[in-house]
Amino acid sequence: MTDLGNTAEKPPTINPRPWSARRPQSLVLSAVFILVAVGLVWQALSYVGAGVGGLVPYFILLAGPILCGYYVWYFNFYKFDESA
After folding, report:
1. What does pTM read for this prediction?
2. What is the C-alpha separation between 67 and 28, in angstroms, rounded?
3. First to last CA, the chain
4. How many C-beta atoms surround the C-beta of residue 60 within 10 A?
5. For residue 68, how many other CB atoms are within 10 A of its CB?
6. Which whole-number Å values give the CA distances from 45 to 26, 28, 34, 68, 72, in the listed order?
7. CB count, 10 Å around CB of 31?
8. Residue closest to 67 by CA, chosen among 33, 18, 22, 41
9. Alpha-helical regions (H) of 1-84
10. DSSP 21
């Protein structure tokens, strides 16, 4: 007779990391955000140099690199809940 006590299939494990935070997607998205941040800073510096835009270019100078840093951290270094 065959031992049927250990034939139960294990449910498939679900990866808790979102699709965008897996490799190589995370590297591509990080590169895109870095390029966007460089573009934003470049544009903000050109506005500041031209003397137009008021306070907005200074906000862009701050927000561009901060958002870029956050998303690079999220896509590459954030520890998702492994217990799910």
Report:
1. 0.72
2. 16
3. 38
4. 19
5. 20
6. 28, 26, 16, 17, 23
7. 11
8. 33
9. 25-50, 56-76
10. G
SS3 18: coil
Q: Could you tell me which of 81, 79, 71, 61 has the C-alpha nearest to residue 26?
A: 71
How many residues are listed for the chain in this entry? Answer: 84
Report the C-alpha gap between 63 and 58 in whole angstroms.
Answer: 9
| Measured distance CA(26)–CA(46) in Å, rounded | 30
pLDDT tens for the chain, residues 1 to 84: 555 656 667 777 777 788 888 889 899 999 999 999 999 999 999 999 999 988 999 999 999 999 999 999 999 998 887 654
Query: What pLDDT is attached to residue 1?
Result: 55
